[in-house]
Structure formats: structure tokens, C-alpha cells
Structure prediction request, 169 residues.
Amino acid sequence: MKAFRTSLIAGLLISLCWTGFPAMSRSAEDPVQGIQQEQSKARQQEQINQARQREQLDQLQRDQRLQQSQQQLDQLRQQQSLRSEPEQQQLNQTQQRLDQLKNEQQLNRLKTELDLNRIQREQNVSRQKEQLRQLQIEQQMNLLKDQQNKLQLQQDLNRQLSPLGRPPR
Prediction:
């Protein structure tokens, strides 16, 4: 009888250990999982911050290039009295294109900032990562488009500045 009690108690202890072990294991995993989630969120936040910094740097460079174009255009306007009516119209059209580029860049800047704020609020880490990747692709496309527009504008300005680019009178 004593052996039966001992084996019954031993069996009960073993079953308690087996049933309690997964719970202990889960409670040990929860802090690890929490730490991993926090690290993942911190990495995502760092990527968002880096995207924001890249966008700011790109925007500063775009603004600088547009400012240079504006200075060249202003230089052409100062020489306006030496220009014919078609040349003045061409200057006005160039100014309108430059203003349009500035407005587009400002809109893109605001859209990017809104997108970054939306991504930052995203709770699902994998969706946040995908949205951030998509935004970076959009930023690259916008940068290339801006460079193309700026190059076209610069070529137009160079033609207007060059005495060889003047139409014969």
C-alpha cells in the first residue's frame, strides 16, 4: 500500500511537472518575444528616421538646384531689354515651368511626410516594413523624375543664355 501511495504521488508530481512545464516555458518565451518585438519596432523606427533624413537631404539638393535655375532665369530677365518678344515669352514659359517644378516638389514633400507619419502609426511590423519599402521606391522615382525635369529646364536655360542659342533676327 505504501508503495502504491508513493508511486501515485510520484505519478502526480510527474504529471504536474509535465503540465506545468509548458506554462513555465511560455512565460519564459513571452519576455523574449516582447524584447524581439521591441527590437523590431526600434529597427523599423530607425528605418523611418533614415527615410525621413534621406528625403530631407534629397529635398535640400532639389531646392538648391531649383534656386540655381531661378538665379540663371533672373540673370536672363535682367538682360531682358536686349531680348526680342519671342525670347521674352520663352523666358516667361521657363519661369512658369520652374514655378510648377517648385510646386510639385512641395506637394511631394508633404505627401512623403504624410506617408511617413502613416507608416509610423502602423502596428503590423511586416506591413510597416512593406509600406516603408514602397515609399522608398516612390522617393527614388520622384527623385529621378525631378532630375529629368531639372535637366530639361537647365538645357532650356542654357539655350537661352547662349548667344548661339538665339534665333536669328
